[in-house]
Design a protein that fits this description.
Elements lengths: L5 E10 L2 E10 L5 E5 L6 H8 L7 E6 L2 E2 L5 H5 L2 E4 L11 H6 L14 H13 L15 H13 L5 E5 L7 H18 L2 E5 L3 H7 L2 E6 L2 E6 L1 H4 L2 H8 L3 E5 L6 E5 L3 H12 L4
Parallel strand pairs: 3-8, 3-9, 6-7, 7-8
Antiparallel strand pairs: 1-2, 1-4, 4-5, 9-10, 11-12
Helix pairs in contact: 4-5, 5-6
């Protein structure tokens, strides 16, 4: 078996005595964009935290290049894996530049000063995310898309090579969703970054991701390229929704369209035909 990269091996994990993931196996494709999809409460965010070493496994293990991440010091692991939580918060008044500088924490010793390598990493992260001109702006004055790019820049300043994103497009409008996902694609293509992200929009996941993993009730139901994963049968099984899957006319990737509910259509027709008082 090839032990390179990030792997979940027979993992059961959760919170307290209640397991959320149950006997899960997953090999994360290196230098690819993997999207975790599934209904609320299925274990997507838990899987992300397990991959980051933030939740200990009750069974199984998570390995990085064959080594158990549970045995690695937190600072050393943070140099390899960066995670951006769903509801990341920063102290009031913090500027973009100050936030991104915090990404250098894993590389600095307790008594070590700020080094030229730290400055270069911060500048590179700001440039890569296109927010160098915002370095002196306070986070609370930015748009949703700009703020999300600032958080991603902080994670990039870690220079980890593996980036875990928990619902990076939630609460963003369509333009900012596209902005963030396009940035992720660039990181994979230009920097060979390994990205795993929790996404809710199936069609966005299929359009932007190289690899998709569909979860239900703490188990992986299917995984592979978008054309393999996003099928009518899989969506029915996992989400309980009847759909038609067609080719995206722009990208050629699978596009999932929910079928009309006959009961709703009948109710609408009756309402339209009812006499008005």
């Amino acid at each position: 078996m090839n032990d390179t990269g990030l792997r979940i091996c027979g993992v059961t994990a959760g919170y307290g005595r209640a397991p959320v993931l149950q006997g899960v196996d997953l090999a994360v494709p290196p230098a690819r964009f993997t999207a975790l999809i599934g209904p609320n409460g299925c274990g997507k965010s838990t899987m992300l935290r397990v991959l980051a070493g933030q939740i200990r496994c009750t069974r199984g293990r998570v390995t990085l290049d064959g080594a158990d991440i549970a045995r690695q010091p937190a600072r050393a692991l943070a140099r390899r894996i960066g995670i951006l939580a769903q509801s990341a918060e920063a102290p009031e008044g913090l500027t973009v530049g100050e936030l991104v500088r915090q990404g250098r924490y894993p590389h600095r010793s307790l008594l070590g000063g700020w080094r030229e390598a730290d400055t270069l990493a911060v500048e590179e992260a700001l440039a890569l995310t296109g927010i160098s001109h915002l370095r002196h702006r306070r986070l609370d004055t930015l748009s949703g898309g700009q703020r999300q790019r600032a958080w991603i820049a902080m994670t990039l300043a870690q220079q980890s090579g593996i980036l875990l994103l928990d619902e990076p497009t939630t609460f963003l409008d369509l333009a900012h969703q596209i902005e963030v996902l396009s940035l992720v694609r660039r990181l994979v293509r230009e920097r060979q970054t390994t990205v795993v992200a929790v996404l809710h929009d199936l069609n966005q996941a299929a359009r932007h991701a190289d690899h998709m993993v569909m979860l239900k009730a703490g188990t992986i139901r299917t995984g592979g390229d978008p054309a393999t994963v996003l099928t009518g049968n899989a969506v029915r099984d996992v989400f309980g929704v009847e759909t038609v899957v067609i080719a995206d006319p722009e990208a050629g990737t699978p596009m999932c369209i929910p079928r009309r509910d006959p009961a709703i259509e009948m109710s609408r027709d009756m309402s339209d035909g009812a006499p008005h008082a």
